[in-house]
Structure formats: C-alpha cells, structure tokens
Specification:
By secondary structure, this protein is α+β, with helices and mostly antiparallel strands. Helices cover about 30% and strands about 35% of the residues. A hairpin with a 2-residue loop joins strand 3 and strand 4. The relative contact order is 0.34.
Length: about 110
C-alpha cells in the first residue's frame, strides 16, 4: 500500500433523524467505495433554525471518512439516499498517520 498525503483524505459530517436507517446508508456508501469508514453516533438533540422557526429534533450524526477525490461523488449519492430536504454536508480536511490515511485512500477509490 502506498502512502497517501494528508490532504487527500476528508471527513464528511451529516445528520439524520434518530429513527432513520443510518446503517443502511453507511453500508451503501462503503459498498460503492464512496467511503472507507462511517461512524454512526448515538441519538442526540439538535436545535436549529429552519424556514424561520426554531426546531428541536432527535438526530444521529454520521462521520464519513473518504478520499478527497471522492467527495463530489459522495455528495451526489448521499443526496440521493438522504431523507432530508437539505442534508448537512460538511467537509473537513484530515491529517493523521500515513498508514491510516493510505488505508482510507485505498478503500474509497
């Protein structure tokens, strides 16, 4: 396995309703090699402004690790799978151990 520069790995954050099937979405992203790993965090309370009103909902956070070159394709596919009208899609550049970053790059290509 070759080393992957840190700038080629991204972490994508999105939230889903607490009752949504996040595991099914995560498996699809992994199966389609759009992500190397997806963490699904326990339900939490989200408070946000939407269409002029303050809302409060139970949601779960998905932390998606992918190759930076796959982010655009991941965004298109996640939009197709996601139940929200406007899904959260935040992209963070990642740094880390060369071996782990290489694994992400190999797994999501």
């Amino acid at each position: 396995m070759t080393t992957t520069p840190a700038s080629t790995v991204s972490i994508v954050l999105t939230t889903l309703g607490a009752d949504a099937d996040a595991a099914s979405i995560a498996r699809t992203l992994i199966d389609e090699r759009l992500a190397a790993c997806v963490n699904i965090l326990p339900a939490m309370t989200s408070i946000y402004r939407w269409q002029g009103k303050v809302e409060q909902e139970r949601e779960q956070q998905m932390v998606i690790k992918t190759a930076s070159g796959r982010v655009a394709d991941l965004q298109v596919r996640l939009r197709q799978l996601h139940p929200y009208e406007l899904p959260e899609f935040l992209v963070l550049d990642a740094t880390g151990s060369e071996a782990y970053l290489a694994w992400v790059g190999e797994s999501a290509r």
